[in-house]
Design brief:
The chain folds into three domains: 38-184, 3-Layer(aba) Sandwich (Rossmann fold); 190-257, Helicase, Ruva Protein, domain 3 (Orthogonal Bundle); 267-332, Winged helix-like DNA-binding domain superfamily/Winged helix DNA-binding domain (Arc Repressor Mutant, subunit A, Orthogonal Bundle). Strands 2-3-6-1-7 form a five-stranded parallel β-sheet, with helices on one face. It has 14 helices and eleven strands. By secondary structure, it is an alpha/beta fold. The protein starts with 21 loop residues before the first helix and ends in a 13-residue tail after the last helix. Helix 7 packs across helix 8, helix 8 packs parallel to helix 10 and helix 9 crosses helix 10 (248-257). Bound molecules: adenosine-5'-diphosphate.
């Protein structure tokens, strides 16, 4: 099965790439203490982890929901580290046949954390297998053929499934109901992003001034992966300019060269808003039509661009399609024209 593309090749920062270089690995927090932001989630997880450890049980299955780059994979690893358990990771599109899943499940050790990313795209036959594995720590396997076929139950070790998705809405309810713990990631607060920039800068051994860190935080779509990518690009610009540290002026110049504006929008974000305004009178316009107009897949539009445009108050998803807000007209410096009939604004 072809893996869904979430982020366009033309983009400068690539929030969907996993471990795209070794530095990214070095920046990944390893413990709940190092994991910055998402305070409420961390506090709850810390309770559940210590209670499970005290009882000697495996942690209940954990469902992580949120846009790309917010730390779902990182959190899954952190949970495994905090439990002192092994960490095994895969993605749903990589599980093509039931035997692919069985291979993982039968190799799990007691208490292991088994992470499945993009869990919304599991095939039905694989999802069915997972139900029994999650509930009864078993696998129902058919042996023999025709009238001789029979199902045998293979026992597997108690484990914790961590499922992550950017699209909770399309995950089936039988699967959702088998997760004992659900965590929803929200876009990060500025102070958390600033703390992430400072931590990453120190791990990368690069100096960054406070006002520069603060502007980087503001320009990073509320997303740790973006803030780390931008930090690395600013390090390049500083080095090129012969600056010993990343200053405010380096960041201002760097962001303008990357065509990232003061809200953290990339060129393609602005293009999306412009197209809705110019071609569809501000909306509503359907996701498929819009995706074709901007030359991206619907997945990329929905998983990468839209969550932040919505969060920033520039776009709304309505039952009839996407609609830009008055704030978007203002941000683009475009006159707020009368909307289509049926528009929300
Ligand atoms: P997701 O799985 O949600 O797409 P990742 O877990 O891959 O996101 O996170 C992307 C990168 O962002 C990680 O490599 C890590 O360096 C950084 N990161 C994510 N969350 C945090 C956090 N809370 N604190 C510090 N860095 C983070």
């Amino acid at each position: 099965m072809e893996k869904k593309k979430v982020k366009p090749e033309s983009s400068i920062v690539r929030p969907e790439s996993i471990n795209d270089d070794t530095q990214d690995l070095a920046l990944r927090p390893r413990s709940l203490l190092e994991f910055l932001g998402q305070k409420g989630m961390k506090e709850n997880l810390s309770v559940f982890i210590s209670a499970a450890k005290e009882r000697g049980d495996s942690l209940d299955h954990l469902f992580l929901i949120g846009p790309a780059g917010l730390g779902k994979t990182t959190m899954a690893q952190v949970v495994a580290n905090e439990l002192g358990s092994g960490f095994i990771q895969t993605t749903a599109p990589a599980l093509e046949k039931p035997k692919d899943l069985v291979g993982f499940l039968t190799n799990l050790k007691k208490g292991d954390v088994f992470f499945i990313d993009e869990i919304h795209s599991l095939k039905p036959a694989i999802e069915e297998l997972l139900y029994i594995a999650m509930e009864d720590y078993g696998i129902d396997w058919v042996v023999g053929q025709g009238p001789m076929a029979r199902t045998i139950r293979i026992a597997i070790k108690p484990f914790t499934l961590v499922g992550a998705t950017t699209k909770a809405g399309v995950v089936s309810s039988p699967l959702i109901s088998r997760f004992g713990i659900t965590c929803r990631f929200s876009f990060y607060e500025l102070e958390d992003l600033e703390a992430i920039v400072r931590r990453s800068a120190s791990l990368l051994n690069v100096k960054i001034e406070n006002d520069a860190a603060s502007l980087l935080a503001k320009s990073s779509r509320g997303t740790p992966r973006v803030v780390n990518q931008l930090l690395k690009r600013m390090r390049d610009f500083a080095q090129y300019a012969g600056e010993p540290s990343i200053t405010l002026s380096v960041v201002k110049t760097g962001l303008s060269r990357l065509e990232i504006d003061e809200l953290g929008l990339e060129k393609q974000d602005r293009e999306i808003l412009k197209i809705i305004i110019e071609r569809y009178k501000g909306g509503p316009v359907g996701a498929e039509t819009l995706a074709i107009s901007i030359g991206e897949s619907v997945e990329t539009l929905e998983d990468y661009y839209e969550p932040y445009l919505i969060q920033a108050g520039l776009l709304q998803r309505t039952p009839r399609g996407r609609v830009v807000t008055s704030f978007a007209y203002g941000h683009l410096g475009m006159p707020d024209i009368p909307r289509n009939e049926g528009s929300l604004f």
